[in-house]
Specification:
mainly alpha, 71% helix
């Protein structure tokens, strides 16, 4: 089945070669464009999946916090710390801070407390205090 005449001339013409090259280039450019778009879309999907995973873990963490806040342990802790409540039969002991002990009335202070604060410790410089702290040596 060999072609002869006008058919042979049409398939061997330069116009057919140029048209087929144009079509090939057109489809190749579109194929490359679609490949690049697909790669970018895959990157975006991966980023969004990572965000979904991080948000799900954060959501689980927050759900755990909500469960803790609804628990009786949390309510009891808050009632004890913020409202100074106690259980029946418990006794609360309040320990005064060291600053309030020094501002107490002179009748409550003993000789031991006044002997702790000496003029030597008041006049030591900071490096001398560190030296004394680490090496337990008193400087004069």
């Amino acid at each position: 089945m060999a072609l002869s005449g006008p058919g042979k001339r049409f398939f061997s013409s330069k116009w057919l070669l140029l048209a087929s090259l144009f079509i090939l280039v057109f489809f190749s450019v579109n194929l490359v464009r679609e490949f690049v778009n697909r790669r970018d879309l895959d990157k975006d999907i991966n980023v969004l999946e990572e965000q979904i995973n991080s948000l799900e873990s954060k959501n689980q963490e927050l759900a755990g916090l909500i469960d803790y806040f609804k628990s009786l342990d949390f309510v009891e802790k808050e009632a004890r710390t913020k409202l100074n409540l106690r259980k029946p039969g418990e006794q609360i002991i309040i320990v005064p801070k060291p600053e309030t002990a020094s501002s107490a009335s002179p009748a409550l202070l003993t000789d031991n407390v006044s002997s702790i604060v000496t003029p030597e410790t008041k006049t030591l410089t900071n490096p001398e205090r560190w030296w004394q702290y680490f090496f337990k040596i008193t400087t004069n």
